[in-house]
Amino acid sequence: MRDTVLVIGASGMLGQDICARCAPYFSLVTAARRAGDFTLDITDTAAVRRVVSQVAPDIVILCAAYTDVDGCEYCPEEAYRTNAFGAANVASACADTGARLLFISTDFVFDGSKRSGYTEWDTPRPLNVYGASKLAGEEWIRHTCPRHWIVRTAWLYGTGGKCFPRTILNSAREGKPLRVVNDQVGSPTFTRDLADVLLQMVQKAVPYGTYHAVNSGSATWYELACETMQLARERGSLAAEVPITPISSREWLSPTQRPAYSVLAMERLRWAGIPLPRHWKEALKDFMYRLDE
Ligand SMILES: NC(=O)c1ccc[n+]([C@@H]2O[C@H](COP(=O)([O-])OP(=O)(O)OC[C@H]3O[C@@H](n4cnc5c(N)ncnc54)[C@H](OP(=O)(O)O)[C@@H]3O)[C@@H](O)[C@H]2O)c1
Hints:
Shape: globular
Bound molecules: NADP nicotinamide-adenine-dinucleotide phosphate
CATH architecture: 3-Layer(aba) Sandwich
CATH superfamily: NAD(P)-binding Rossmann-like Domain
């Protein structure tokens, strides 16, 4: 018999790819606030307990989160309610029913002071509310649900949602000159590639604990924008030359302090024998192809 996987946050950008990737191998049940087999708000303790005990999943994949990073600065209570308390609700329900929990976390748990990839055993020190609320969610899960995988990822883009490469393309097609931050370095990651890693982790039943999973290589937002425009021109889907100017974080008005460097090293995936995701440039090319399909 197939294992049952409950995906919470199934309507989100990553959630859609996780569902597509898991559907052929598992009995899939979906939940999100406004869509899915179950409409579920993870901040509702009783509802989470009810859905998890009714579905009785073998594995819960929790990718629901309050992901508006600037919004978290303006509404910290909402950020902690969803990203920490909501995660705790799911962790308790999993612990009660014996389900294994896979939780998606973020590179923003780190402060960016390193200049080489952050490993799974580097000490988190978030600079912003989003990172702190996700870290609180991580800690709650570690204390509550022993059978967990926490997977930190970064700079996600995918065909199923609003994301940076899509925003750049839309602005460029409207002929708007672009100003893009060039002093933050990270790991751009295609949701489809991440979903593939998560599937392998679950299928191989890798040891519990904390993992990093991103596309290989690193880039600044400016480099990611330039590569996106270059690929679009090569594909003939961007006619005009649009000027693009590198700027510093200080010139980009935002309420959120972001790490200057948040590249993730994937030591635990390597040790678990999971092939590391391809280079971000290759993944971006694939994304652009699928976007035009
Ligand atoms: N995007 C990134 O660059 C990035 C980077 C690192 C880590 N992550 C993590 O990766 C995961 C997926 O991110 P994403 O960009 O795919 O997210 P997303 O597109 O913003 O989707 C978020 C999902 O969470 C659901 N949700 C939000 N609040 C909820 C609540 N209180 N109860 C139940 N469901 C709720 C949303 O459902 P509704 O649409 O119905 O509200 C939606 O399905 C998140 O855990 C995020 O923290 C993202």
